Amino acid sequence: MRITPLEDWIAGKLGVTGKPVELMERLRIRQLELLNATLAHAARHSPFYRRRLGDCRPLVSLSGLADLPFTTSADLSEQGLQMLAVSQGEIKRIVTLRSSGTTGQAKRVYFTRSDLEYTKAFFRCGMSRMLQPGQRVLVLLPGELPDSAGRLLADALQQQGISCHVAGLVSDPGAIAALLVEEPFDCVVGIPVQVLGVVRHPLAAEVPTHRIGSVFLTSDYVPSALVGEIRRVWGCPAVNHYGMTELGLTCGVECHALDGYHLREPDLYFEVVDPVSGAALRAGETGEVVVTTLTRLGMPLIRYRTGDLARFMAEPCPCGSVLPRLGKVQGRLAARVDLGGLLKPCMSDLDEALFSLRGLLNFRAVLTMLDTDRSTLQLMIETLPGAERRTRDHVDRRLPTIPALRAAVAAGRLVLQPTVLADAPLSVSATVKRIIEQPQKENANLETAC
């Protein structure tokens, strides 16, 4: 098994040619240097961080970062331009992130040209072991605007002689499946539920096995059923990419081992903390991912609470790398539905249980409060043509077996309503994750990378 390309990439940046232990020592030294430079830059040029950090002295160790306050999604929404650390004239890309609620204030994230170039550099490195010059990539991400996710990826890969067809978000899975049959693509990049719609279309089975060498999945939770379906139909690995718009789209990516994310450590510093106390957690303990940007000029983020739940992996990567790994993101704090006590189901619970049903393409889940102690949950599903009733019946039988839902029903906290069929394809966003919707509540802090 080939080692992650990130190790050579980081070693090259640090000028390290010696033993792996030297790589980690030099990496942590360099991160501390970049962190102190970021703190000084933010305190000097950002009105928000000037107030937040005050007279912040250089840190003597990375552990000292834990003494600094967190930055939150609410700060992005409320402070906006106050967080900029450059003039507005230096900003080349502004991304507006809207929550899935109706009244939440939008967040705007600002990038300079150098910020975007760092993103492109990681795209090139993260995909380099799966792609070679002369190969072709089908990109199922937004690409209409300059420096949008699809366009940034295409620009990055084209610099390595890899051609990209940016098709945008999938509105017709059959058309994309037909394109894959008609034209040879070596790789597909897309949003999990949209790729599922393509791979489950009947035409997808006509793509020659192993023609597609890899599928990169990004922007939302990746259910294990989708990984298995891609392997079954196309005979290739599904690689999980971790990123979010606030942090420059890309934070980490799996290697050939497909066992956790190797991280963008030259540009970002990662922590995993207890969601309640904010205390640092040990490797193996699941908590909230907190990230500090190290090379970001336009809008530096210091100890940004992502809302993502994951853990640092204690065991070495099977690929042989010494680099730390972040385990698969298990969902988002804000996406968990509180039904009282320990009853907190989330969309990933439903995804893992339901997407193994072959006729299912997508679904919406809506939680409605009946009173202070009880709620109802109803799903609206999108299925393969001809599989509507059968899939609906399977969903209705599967839902009560999901542990989190079964416990809530047994406690009298939840009533499961009959599943309904969607009369049109369900919408998919590149910037908002699928969640269990709660019409009576504002669903804030649910944006993700596109």
TrEMBL record:
Family annotation (Pfam families): AMP-binding
InterPro entries linked: AMP-dep_synth/lig_dom (IPR000873), ANL_N_sf (IPR042099), CapK_Type1_Caps_Biosynth (IPR053158)
Molecular-function annotations in GO: nucleotidyltransferase activity
Name under which the protein is recorded: Adenylyltransferase, putative
Keywords: Nucleotidyltransferase, Transferase
Domain AMP-dependent synthetase/ligase, first and last residues per copy: 99-292
Keyword Nucleotidyltransferase recorded: yes
Domain of life: Bacteria
